Amino acid sequence: MTMIKMPKRYPELANPQMRPRFTGVPTFFRLPLSEDLAGLDIGIIGVPYDGGVTNRPGARHGPREVRNQSSLMRVFNEGTGVAPFLGRRVADLGDCWIEQPYALEGAHAEIAEFFHAVKAAEVTTLAVGGDHSISLPILRAVAAKGPLGMVHIDAHCDTGDDYLGSRFHHGAPFRRAVEENLLDPRRVIQIGIRGTVNDPRMWAFSRESGMRVLPMDEFHDEGWRFALAEAKRVIGEAPAYLSFDIDSLDPVYAPGTGTPETGGISTIEAMRLLRGLTGCRFVGADLVEVSPPFDQGGITAFHGAAILFELLCLLAAAEGDVQRPGAGAA
Amino acid sequence: MTMIKMPKRYPELANPQMRPRFTGVPTFFRLPLSEDLAGLDIGIIGVPYDGGVTNRPGARHGPREVRNQSSLMRVFNEGTGVAPFLGRRVADLGDCWIEQPYALEGAHAEIAEFFHAVKAAEVTTLAVGGDHSISLPILRAVAAKGPLGMVHIDAHCDTGDDYLGSRFHHGAPFRRAVEENLLDPRRVIQIGIRGTVNDPRMWAFSRESGMRVLPMDEFHDEGWRFALAEAKRVIGEAPAYLSFDIDSLDPVYAPGTGTPETGGISTIEAMRLLRGLTGCRFVGADLVEVSPPFDQGGITAFHGAAILFELLCLLAAAEGDVQRPGAGAA
Amino acid sequence: MTMIKMPKRYPELANPQMRPRFTGVPTFFRLPLSEDLAGLDIGIIGVPYDGGVTNRPGARHGPREVRNQSSLMRVFNEGTGVAPFLGRRVADLGDCWIEQPYALEGAHAEIAEFFHAVKAAEVTTLAVGGDHSISLPILRAVAAKGPLGMVHIDAHCDTGDDYLGSRFHHGAPFRRAVEENLLDPRRVIQIGIRGTVNDPRMWAFSRESGMRVLPMDEFHDEGWRFALAEAKRVIGEAPAYLSFDIDSLDPVYAPGTGTPETGGISTIEAMRLLRGLTGCRFVGADLVEVSPPFDQGGITAFHGAAILFELLCLLAAAEGDVQRPGAGAA
Amino acid sequence: MTMIKMPKRYPELANPQMRPRFTGVPTFFRLPLSEDLAGLDIGIIGVPYDGGVTNRPGARHGPREVRNQSSLMRVFNEGTGVAPFLGRRVADLGDCWIEQPYALEGAHAEIAEFFHAVKAAEVTTLAVGGDHSISLPILRAVAAKGPLGMVHIDAHCDTGDDYLGSRFHHGAPFRRAVEENLLDPRRVIQIGIRGTVNDPRMWAFSRESGMRVLPMDEFHDEGWRFALAEAKRVIGEAPAYLSFDIDSLDPVYAPGTGTPETGGISTIEAMRLLRGLTGCRFVGADLVEVSPPFDQGGITAFHGAAILFELLCLLAAAEGDVQRPGAGAA
Amino acid sequence: MTMIKMPKRYPELANPQMRPRFTGVPTFFRLPLSEDLAGLDIGIIGVPYDGGVTNRPGARHGPREVRNQSSLMRVFNEGTGVAPFLGRRVADLGDCWIEQPYALEGAHAEIAEFFHAVKAAEVTTLAVGGDHSISLPILRAVAAKGPLGMVHIDAHCDTGDDYLGSRFHHGAPFRRAVEENLLDPRRVIQIGIRGTVNDPRMWAFSRESGMRVLPMDEFHDEGWRFALAEAKRVIGEAPAYLSFDIDSLDPVYAPGTGTPETGGISTIEAMRLLRGLTGCRFVGADLVEVSPPFDQGGITAFHGAAILFELLCLLAAAEGDVQRPGAGAA
Amino acid sequence: MTMIKMPKRYPELANPQMRPRFTGVPTFFRLPLSEDLAGLDIGIIGVPYDGGVTNRPGARHGPREVRNQSSLMRVFNEGTGVAPFLGRRVADLGDCWIEQPYALEGAHAEIAEFFHAVKAAEVTTLAVGGDHSISLPILRAVAAKGPLGMVHIDAHCDTGDDYLGSRFHHGAPFRRAVEENLLDPRRVIQIGIRGTVNDPRMWAFSRESGMRVLPMDEFHDEGWRFALAEAKRVIGEAPAYLSFDIDSLDPVYAPGTGTPETGGISTIEAMRLLRGLTGCRFVGADLVEVSPPFDQGGITAFHGAAILFELLCLLAAAEGDVQRPGAGAA
Questions:
Q1: What CATH architecture does domain A24-318 belong to?
Q2: Residues in chain B whose Cβ is within 8 Å of chain C
Q3: Are the beta carbons of D251 and C302 separated by less than 8 Å?
Q4: B304-320 residue pLDDT tens
Q5: Can you name the CATH fold of D28-318?
Q6: What ipTM is given for this predicted complex?
Q7: Global pTM?
């Protein structure tokens, strides 16, 4: 090998994450891109699939733009002091390969297979969609050993039934997950729900199955600390999944999404809610529904990257003691 | 007639409002487009006129883009449970025809004539502007039998006096409406007022005539519930009009408007305030000042459509008992 | 019926096509929206389907935005003098209904069924996609009586083979159409072909089946008049179809498309080429691949609408003598 | 006076036109802003009026954005060698003041009065609109001593008749100018005409009055040199006016305009055509219909500024010998 | 001199600030542009320099776009009643001239020299950047007589150390200012601090030197009134500077900035906080980091102009009794 | 190593370049990212530096966005049949590291050092800027053995002299390169030159040193084939460099650049000109001045990627026989 020699004035800059943020190839957080699972703790995986949408497509372009904006994130979490790259081996595993993009169920089978492989290597997965239909095949892998709890932040319950012949579109993953015993509905909380509906019982499955639905109005009345307390209460101490749909955010923070709903969560509320979950036993997480073609100047992907960093910190902290060199510094 | 046969797998989809939201011709909420007033309860009317602006034009394009974005709304109001299309006959009446666009007073006369015709058929009007000057000719029709109360949500009082030779520009409609005995100022509340002014007495008419001015700072201090209580107190039980200027919203929610003012109402506050007015005796309403040429990715028109849906629900509920199949479901 | 009375100062304005262009509900060219085929000559049909794309989606939103921009077109063709709405009954038939959007072949079957129904009523179809995969099911209806010739204007031959398990994606419709005996390849010309390829034999089917491929370089060298002459020579006097992919245009004219290719046809060349085809025996046409989420300020849809107007004029002229009140006027 | 001292390393930078192009207050070409006409040769005047449009407004914002982009122009014309600021005193006269913006004819009277005042001081006027209706009151001042010839570059003839009650809208100025004996139609050439029309005789006045109409197709066939020769032939040696409507350019160069038409002139063709007119006896000129709200990234205003620079050079050269220090240098 | 005569119907319109807001040349608030310091109270100065950025450039274009949007501001502050142009002579002094743009320290020396000259004339300076590195040379002039207190509103402390060989980049000005005895750190408050960091001790200098750091989370918990009280307590009665970095605002209000951080201050909070500081002894202020190339529809510059107006009112009020004709009017 | 298993249905898709174009991490053309020079033929290198601009910055973001858009390119050149990835080992070498971004000459020294290292390994370099100042340090490495010829496609000659104290800004690289004996001016051709100038002798160095300047007007008159013939004649058979400034293209193709000039080369002309140079002895090339903050929807970066692919093909062909599996296929 004849390697180009590294910079020498500032040796710390050998770390790509320390370089000026407009440089380099945009992997997630400018992490190493690797398909080698050996010794890895957390793998971030793009899932560029939007074949499950019911309205505006484009989330297939989400992983790339979230990667692009993620260079604007740095390495320490000033809010919690968590340093996810210290003591945890994290990599960008690239995009989940989908060989049957024209067949929803075929694509889902491939996604499940990919995540099974990663889980088999005892690597925790952090997925970036893609539309929300991908959470179902991910859960098939992540919850293979038994149903999980879930903190689900979204404008929609996504517990709908069949739509135009499909049981697996992006409005239905969590009904299917309950039916497949991947989620324990009594340990599921859905935060931020709002918007008009086409059927007054559209999300009835959520409540009837035992999920805690915390609509946006309640969130607005009671605040993020209340939602946090409820979330901790509902998921308890057992393993849980975290699914963050970017459309939970107010459209001014996330115009680039397929199904925006007026009047959502602000980013500061979302960030604080997520940081408050530090220490919960999350065994996997996803960020979904960033749709770059509908974005404005990259702000949705930028906020997606900021949320993704929080999800990463949560997963890092969930694996046991985590370094917090910055705790109290901010 | 040789009609194309309707879809057959999902008969409910014969209703255009149930079809995928990217399809079809964008009438308001994908309602039938009709100029037939017989048997109608509520007519939604575009008023594509912006000849009354003092600065940035473009609101003439408002009705079209609000129609376009309104397909993103569904049919039940998850917040109040109101189902405006059940038990009420609602139609898109098309655009109010203006044959004298180069003559402000001529155009206003035509708008008044159009709304008189609709009122004469006992159809409640919901107008989409256009600039705010259109509220005056609309009130000439809607308040023909006597002065009304009004909930007026706006960044500006719009009770100014003559400007550059015109008595009827978009900063003056409500002074004229009081002078013409169309509004009872003691039953008028103006919510969200703010911004710099060119004359410290610019909006003095409002207070001196007896209107309740609730500036943005007071709204920010006291909250939407207080503003709601004040609004109900001021308009009381008698008939009232509702005028919603999109520039009442903060510019991040509504950049596409002619006269933005820093620091306004958020959409969730606006939505909750409006929903709280359910049951008030509104006899007409308008949404004005959406200016698509200044919009960013359609977000102003999107929020305009969301507000319009709330106005429609208020008018539906004001006509007596309304079906609420979704009450308590969210 | 209690109709709102029509404007009276300018009776000609009872015709929606004559009204100011920012007003009204955007049907194609502000034509009547009707599902009644009786007595109709030409029906313009939206096909909001993009399940066949291989890269960037969004063409499902094409029909709506082409409708929106089509209000900027007027009623006489200054270039050819053709008046398509005189002596021809033309309507906007709305959007082709697709009940199986998650199943490519199912959706195609429904498209074919819809166009069969329209053809059965002896109405000529002008389709607005949607991705290019829709041309196959349309041809199944339009070419039901035997193979047609075709003028195909595109950056790509779209005669590819299977891709990721699908035989019917948007890069393959015309290979399938030849295989299904819907097209006579010796009477097919493909104009504007260019771009990088992943396989040097990617479009080999075109030449080997006998199609005339006229690549962009040849077009650039020889000019639109040569391309026109070639097109007339190839299709001859027999019935032919016309398929216009917006990506044939240079990306500066059509950024809003899924598969842009550097260095294409200018709009003035395209307009003159199309106008030159007046009198050819076209029995159907389509405009495809306008993808609004990737558009910039509506320019792609605007140019799509201008092209659509030319296609309409060609179909009007193909049905026999057409009124040309404006011939020679420009 | 206590003046801030001027920069000292590079004394030539005391000239604002030489400073970095992102600095300073954007007058036209960073010229001095002055209302003093004494000793001036050419005055550039903004006319922020768009009350004459028939469709999309916004040209009132044209002067400001053309000023903004004009900082990107430098001081020598590389094409012709003309140095318009050497030997000619040029100033930005600010915006023509309009006190009756709500009354089309009143506004026109004020524009005429302003230009009369400037002409009375023997200052040549270069106007930046605003919509095309402003050319009529300008001609009332500029052609006060007798009818002029005109080179008119536009997509539309603008010789229409009354529209919705107005005789003076932006589609009619040149019919009125002929009627008022401000133009000699036999010395008028209209270049770039195209687009659909609502009436086959829409522009018949042009031909019937004797104007030379050179449609876009002829321009495309024969080229800019032919158009230039025709223009010189038609206007001859006598005084002439030059009116440049930005919509003459193809919409890819000028999306920000009220009435775009597919398939127009390219900027290089326009620049060369204009440069070829150097030496003609132009006694005034205008650039109209730049509408910033419809622009994309300022490209229309940028091209407007480039055209404006050419118009300035033509006026500078029309006043007699002009310095050409750069002739032959490029 | 031969002046164009002023408008006559509305003599008050001789004041450019009273004219329609889309007209005229955009100086700050349409004030006179002058380099004459005699008799002036406050001078607004553009500092178009961004050579100190560590990531995204573009703030060099800030002064021009803030000037452009500032026309949307009027003359009275409805919140505080302050009328900054009554009893205070205010001018746009143009852009600070920088002759050494390629040498950071040279440029800084020139900025300092410019501000020294203005201060020497006893004119209070209000600067518009440019990146935050400019605050250091400005303080060298403004704090020449001794260290000042400071209200610093920002997402970042900007008290970092050397970066890639520069001691004077935009992340370090206030460390240098303390080292140079320009600021008294015990009288400095930093409000709005947040975001990820690359070093847990990145902003340690702030706390260790004695500054009051009020992070965003504390602001979110305690509110703007608390932050205001803290700010007044920290700066006390002695002279202070005010530095407002637009990235203190949430990115939805200010996407056009070089270093956005999720979850910031809203504009209404910022406006109220600033208004609450009326009466404090501010001896200078700046607004920095507006980066137009990253803006969306001008909203960042619009908000920058609104903040600038508040800063101007604070400086006007700091100079002694100020006219408040509008107090209590809103 | 525990690798994620590769896809299995379509083994060819193990090649990232064959995967759907919206997937994966955007290296240049989705090539392997490697700092290992061993055995490499061509290395593509980002140079994210824009410290040499004289007006609008942002080209530092160029490499990233060109990488992003380059996924839209495929692997065979349909125009020339060249297959650059067959028989040539090509890699993305990442971004040239710059440790002294605040010091123009320091940064240039680092760029030169990086390219020296790559050349030392006998790897041909293809650079993506960055502003045009980078060509000088690149030439210091590439032309280390003696002066080269050059095909320089640009709107500006870039042979200016000192500007504001810098000898090395982006308007001067080729004057310096001649002075440093890196270029043989008699073997240099500059194509596309145009625009206004601040000094009639601004580019005099070009002609006086013996370069062939082919201005845009000559290009427009004589066509791309003439320019190609001239280019071949001027550079002859000896080694040459190729520098492509994106601002050579007309601004409609490349709005995202720092110094746009009206009326440039179209992409089809540029592509054909470049393809015609196949076989010339190019020993290095660069693409510069793509400035994403000023881009519109990525079109400039898209065209930059298309140009980059042509440059790559030229370098591949310059190294001897190259595979052309697609020759004649298009």
A1: 3-Layer(aba) Sandwich (3.40)
A2: 1-10, 13, 19-20, 22-27, 33, 35-38, 46, 48, 60-61, 63-64, 67-68, 92-95, 97, 99-101, 114, 117-118, 121
A3: yes
A4: 999 999 999 999 999 88
A5: Arginase; Chain A (3.40.800)
A6: 0.96
A7: 0.97
